[in-house]
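Fill in residues.
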């Protein structure tokens, strides 16, 4: 029978898991996990040993319960679940390597944390103002695509020109419109969030024009080049996007940059289409959701069921002109 080793701590287990147990996870996720572990797990219970929970200084289920309850005073339920998952997976790995005989973390339930920051959507007037303000920004194409197609931020950051069709096949029967093919993201292995998320989205005229301008600005980019990229041609990370997005918000009267994040462009896409008459089933398809429940509970802020096409609807909402509403 294998005997658990002595002296192995929670910090040892978490560090080992972060270093060697995440080979199938992208670097941004690893950085996020490491930040959470170093901020909330290791300082609080990192010195606890993983050997025999009956011994003093060894981790017990009660220790984990108390730690989670303490964190629930300042962290959201989503963050608490993530912290529990990190610790649970780290201890499971330690158990598989005979550093501990039992995973007490698995016995503990995640409490309810503080209320997270509620997502919201732009009003029509705010959306028009945002499109106008974004025209002078290097993030213009990103903003237009996110707001008018509903693509996720991690999908747009990975979008390359080989997956952009600005012409379509107007002579086909039926005609094939200009489109972007959302087949990749910045997630592990470049996969989209789900299989349903792999989709091709028809482009509203405003998107086509923004992408044509972006293509020209990049000086005839190669197919594999990123549509929205840094000056070095590398993909933007979420911090780059957030800074540039809030700089756009800052010039719009009555809008506080600290109140808005890029993810709310996708929320606004759902609300604007729903308010303009599109059914929740069609919106769910455009968003790449496997069903309507996520669209309804997370993204939708209004609902009026009528069938319309996404690109056609956005052309009706914002118009094809160079200025919003034209």
């Amino acid at each position: 029978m294998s005997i658990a080793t002595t002296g192995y701590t929670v910090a040892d287990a978490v560090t080992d898991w972060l270093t060697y147990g995440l080979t199938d996870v992208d670097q941004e996720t690893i950085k996020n996990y490491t930040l959470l572990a170093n901020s909330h797990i290791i300082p609080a219970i990192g010195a606890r040993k993983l050997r025999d929970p009956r011994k003093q200084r060894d981790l017990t289920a009660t220790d984990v319960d108390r730690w989670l309850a303490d964190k629930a005073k300042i962290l959201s339920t989503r963050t608490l679940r993530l912290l529990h998952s990190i610790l649970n997976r780290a201890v499971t790995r330690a158990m598989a390597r005979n550093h501990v005989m039992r995973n007490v973390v698995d016995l503990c339930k995640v409490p309810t944390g503080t209320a997270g920051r509620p997502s919201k959507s732009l009003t029509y007037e705010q959306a028009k103002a945002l499109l106008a303000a974004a025209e002078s920004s290097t993030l213009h194409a990103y903003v237009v695509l996110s707001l008018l197609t509903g693509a996720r931020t991690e999908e747009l950051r990975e979008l390359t020109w080989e997956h952009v069709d600005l012409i379509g096949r107007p002579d086909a029967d039926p005609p094939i419109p200009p489109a972007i093919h959302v087949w990749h993201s910045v997630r592990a292995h470049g996969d989209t969030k789900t299989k349903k998320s792999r989709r091709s989205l028809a482009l509203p005229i405003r998107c086509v024009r923004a992408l044509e301008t972006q293509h020209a600005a990049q000086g005839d980019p190669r197919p594999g080049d990123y549509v929205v990229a840094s000056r070095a041609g590398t993909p933007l990370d979420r911090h780059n996007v957030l800074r540039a997005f809030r700089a756009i918000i800052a010039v719009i009267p009555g809008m506080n940059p600290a109140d808005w994040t890029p993810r709310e462009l996708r929320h606004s896409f759902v609300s604007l289409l729903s308010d303009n008459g599109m059914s929740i089933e069609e919106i769910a398809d455009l968003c790449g959701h496997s069903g309507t429940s996520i669209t309804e509970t997370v993204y939708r802020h209004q609902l009026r069921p009528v069938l319309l096409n996404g690109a056609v609807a956005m052309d009706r909402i914002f118009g094809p002109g160079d200025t919003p509403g034209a």
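The CA atoms of residues 284 and 291 lie 6 Å apart.
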